[in-house]
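Async update (no meeting this week)

Hi team, since we skipped the sync, here's where things stand on the single-chain job. The sequence we agreed to prioritize is pasted below, unchanged from the tracker. I ran it this morning and attached the output directly underneath so nobody has to dig for it. Comments welcome in thread, and please keep replies under the output.
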Amino acid sequence: MSGSIFDTPFLGLAVYLALIAWVAVRTLSMNDTKEAFILGGRRLGAWVIAFSERTAAESSWLILGLSGAFFASGLIEVWTVLGCVGGIIFYWFAVAGKLRVVSEEKGAITLPEYFVQVSGPYGRRVRAAAMLIITFFFSFYVAAQFKGAEKMIAVTFGIESGFVMPAAAAVVVLYTLMGGFAAVCYTDVVQAILMLVTLVFMPIAGFVFIAKGGLSVSDALAAAGNAGSLLGGKTGWAAFAAVIGGLSWGLGYMGQPHLVTKFMAIRTADDIKKSRSVAVVWTVLAYAGAALVGIVGITLIHHGAAIAEGMAEGGNDPERILPVLASALFPAWIAGILIAGAVAAMMSTADSQLLIAASTIVEDFYCKALRRTLSQKGLVRMSRAVTAAVGLAALLIAASSDNLIYDVVSMAWAGLGASFGPALLLSLHWKRMNGRGILFSMVTGAGATVLWTLVPALNEAVSVRFAAFALSLAAAILGSLNISGKIRAYGI
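Output:
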């Protein structure tokens, strides 16, 4: 029907935003205490936590960044997929259940507070380091999500104005400060379903189109240079570094505060097993879908398909491949629903990160470090104000940055993963881990990430994600064993 509402992608996006608004309003009354706002009162079920953890982890980096990386580089990105899936499975087994039990025993409702509780006399320094690290890296991480929303909306609706990114940021900040942790988790359920629909149906439609047109995936990969090579045409150390760089993405999961906090919020530790099964199935389907979106894009563009024009209009930005495919392969209203899945990816990560940043500033800095007290309602109001302030800071960073989402998230992911991952893993499973080791690990992980980012030659030789994590792990062990003190004691 020409001129009908079904001829526009706005319909799908409007339905999605209406669902989010409904959840925010429904959860508004669930935040009468600080613990309810920050951690949902530790009463959320297995399915909700599984979906929330997965969507919070797989931001616009997965749905735009990874699909774009496959489109730009080809099969060498398989190592990234293997690393991420392996890392997800590992930390659901190694961290989730134990952290749920220990955090409740210690009375910790944030990751920094957990570290303080297990750090003894180093607690105050650990708290300060954790607050600075979270605030710094999360500002860039949230900014990447806002940037992702701008790209998707620009491609789908042809809107390139400066209004798009502030509008997307306003929506995320508004429902987060209204509903707190409960709003974040329940909207994540909606977002998880939308993301999965997008990442499953998009490549299916693409391969149907390829088959009907008699196009060849293998020919397209061959025509795209080294896209068909698992090593990207690299040899020797360069090939080894590429493989390690891809696999090292999996190291970061243990250190993401917005993810591990989900484990602390689940109703009981026994629910972890059910939650884990749901999370693993979702992960395999979503990562396979993102990879295949990139492969479909390579095939269509190298056979002269219509998507070439859409990519050219976007300056040939590889991270626009998913919205371009949606617009080319589906009717406008369906494309709008699929693009809503991509917007959901951004929102589901940004909201969790905003909440963690707010809880860090309010709970760990204002309440604990400054030892100030407010009524429960006062603390909730302060949490909402800080959420808005952090959102604004991230928006300003996003507006002033031209970096790709993949690159920005890679830096933030490496920094958080290296700063907190080794410390969390060892504190849960190694009895000799102590506050000195935790502090050394945090500082080393953050410092190494910044150094590797500022010196590109280091990152080309060894991935920042691997190098920072390895150095942080070594610092945790050496610090806990007080090797330097023992060396001085022996006069060496």
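Quick observations from my side:
The chain is about 80% helix and 0% strand.
The mean pLDDT is 81.
Reply here if anything looks off.
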